[in-house]
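Session log. Operator J.P. requested a structure for one protein chain; no other inputs attached. Running the standard single-chain path with token output.
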Amino acid sequence: MEYNRRILNSTNGMKTSWNLINIERGKVMKNRTIQSLNIGGETTADHQTIADTFNRHFIMILDLINKNNIDKNYSVETHRNNQPLFMVNVSHTPFPSMKFTCTTEKQINR
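Structure written below.
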């Protein structure tokens, strides 16, 4: 009865349903917030620095994929079933520059 009420009162019934299923399975996700990060041997709590570091990390991964895995003779059509290779092949054009800014928890919830 409690579960029905929680699902009916939820703004996202599907998410609430999965949360309840995971509770019953004993698999409760803990909400973990990054308070600080060790970057190059130094610990920082500056949210902008942390966001920039993650951004550089993911850009570096794409650069590594592009440098190591692209064979220009491969056809995109030939590799549609090979999703990672397909994604690499269509990423020949540079991505637009992105800049992350700090937000509040209230902004994210909205």
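Operator note: DSSP finds five helices and two strands in the chain.
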